[in-house]
Write a structure and sequence with these properties.
Oligomer: single chain
Number of helices: 1
Largest sheet: 8 strands, antiparallel, barrel
Number of strands: 12
Structural class: mainly beta
Order of helices and strands: HEEEEEEEEEEEE
Radius of gyration: 22 Å
CATH class: Mainly Beta
Shape: elongated
């Protein structure tokens, strides 16, 4: 069942850009985000359960979709975040400890109404709410700054001190759910400014405030 779900997501990702450019009232969008990504949990150096504290350096997004009805739109949304791993179990990490995280969802947005901002009706605001499901994947490479690096020559290094380490790198992936609330400001029949907030439940829980430029067809 999971394989079928992921194949469906991949198929929609391939098909939807063609539909959006075919005059079916579709859209494409690029966004910049302010993200607050939650702590990641998992083994450190193959044992136990550690908490990895994450900081955000870059967060961007893209989406593509089409309007099924004046009130409903089907949307595929992709977000990418990268930054530093700042702590492992409250211990400061070594400089260069980093992570990468990506999430993709397929969902439905409900457009509440269209509120014209001028007499011509060209400028308008469309508030909406949305929900989606999908998949996320994350990778990190981190080490506690208090540890001694292993030297060359053997697993612990020739003449290495007791307790030497080489840090840890790991990846996690799984299913996610997304909830969204936002508003589209129509600046032109083909151009809009989308301002929205996303909450993603996944391998990490993430808050994202997004501002995007939307091209509508």
């Amino acid at each position: 069942m999971n394989k079928i779900k992921y194949l469906l997501v991949a198929a929609l990702w391939v098909v939807m850009p063609g539909q959006a450019n075919a005059g079916d009232k579709g859209y494409i969008q690029a966004s910049y985000s302010l993200a607050d990504i939650g702590d990641a949990t998992g083994p450190y150096r193959g044992s136990g359960s550690a908490t990895y504290s994450l900081d955000e350096d870059l967060a961007v997004g893209a989406s593509v979709g089409w309007n099924l009805h004046k009130n409903f739109a089907l949307e595929v949304k992709l977000n990418y975040i990268e930054g530093d791993v700042t702590e492992i179990d409250s211990a400061t990490t070594r400089t260069g400890s980093q992570y990468n995280y990506a999430v993709a969802t397929v969902g439905v947005n409900y457009n509440i109404d269209r509120f014209a901002l001028d007499k011509t009706g060209q400028f308008a605001v469309i508030p909406y709410v949305g929900a989606g499901v999908g998949y996320d994947v994350g990778y990190l490479d981190a080490q506690k700054d208090s540890e001694v690096n292993c030297g060359p020559g053997s697993a612990l290094g020739a003449g290495a001190q007791d307790g030497c380490a080489s840090g840890d790198n790991r990846n996690e992936h799984g299913s996610v759910m997304r909830a969204s609330v936002g508003g589209l400001v129509e600046l032109h029949k083909n151009i809009g400014l989308d301002i929205n907030y996303d909450y993603v439940w996944g391998t990490v829980d993430t808050h994202m405030a997004n501002v995007g430029l939307r091209l509508m067809f």
